[in-house]
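Here's what a typical entry looks like (Syntaxin 16):
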Amino acid sequence: MALVSGISLDPEAAIGVTKRPPPKWVDGVDEVSSIFSMMLAGLSRR
């Protein structure tokens, strides 16, 4: 019995290549990350 399901012998799957676009929430994470970076840069100038 395998402990991990969904193991593929496809070499592209092994390196994480997907044919789908990233989920919509990824853009939100990038935006929040940039906002925090700007805030931290502003705080470090003081």
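The first helix runs from residue 11 to 14.

More examples are in the samples folder.
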